[in-house]
Amino acid sequence: MSYARSEYEDFKRIAPDAYDLVLALGQVAAKAGLDKQLLELVKLRASQINGCAFCVQHHVLLSERIGVPVDKLHLVAVWREAPIFSARERAALAWAEALTCLSDGVSAEVYAEASREFSETELTYLTSAVASINVWNRFGAAFRWTPAKRPVAATSATS
């Protein structure tokens, strides 16, 4: 039984111009040179906060494909308590949480921490990545897109 109201593929079909714009916004941070693993951690954390199962699964699977350590994926929800994250990752995760939970605003402390770790240009592109994932989360959560299934690993034939 599916709980989906519509699916990701429906969004591409129904509103291709909106799809293309959100997709493009989500790609500019990596094109600008921000670390792809860091961006995936940020996107995963925002998706957890927003309760978007489709995006959580999507970014877990993508993170695994690009080599994000499994321990980081397991601990991103509690990153403040996990010493595995670098200062730069911590600053990015704090920035993502502040921008995802905007009702609390962005504190001077979070801004200062992010500004220490990221140049003005990097922080602007990091903000675009957070903005993009929050847009994706709105669609995914609203329409309850079905999360992708984990690909089945090919098994070798043994005799």
TrEMBL record:
Q: Which InterPro entries match?
A: AhpD-like, AhpD_core, CMD-like
Q: Where is the Carboxymuconolactone decarboxylase-like domain?
A: 16-98
Pfam families referenced in this protein's UniProt entry, alphabetically = CMD (PF02627)
Gene3D superfamilies xrefs: AhpD-like
One Gene Ontology molecular-function label: peroxiredoxin activity
- Domain of life here? Bacteria
Full protein name: AhpD family alkylhydroperoxidase
UniProt source species: Bradyrhizobium sacchari
Lineage summary:
Bacteria, Pseudomonadati, Pseudomonadota, Alphaproteobacteria, Hyphomicrobiales
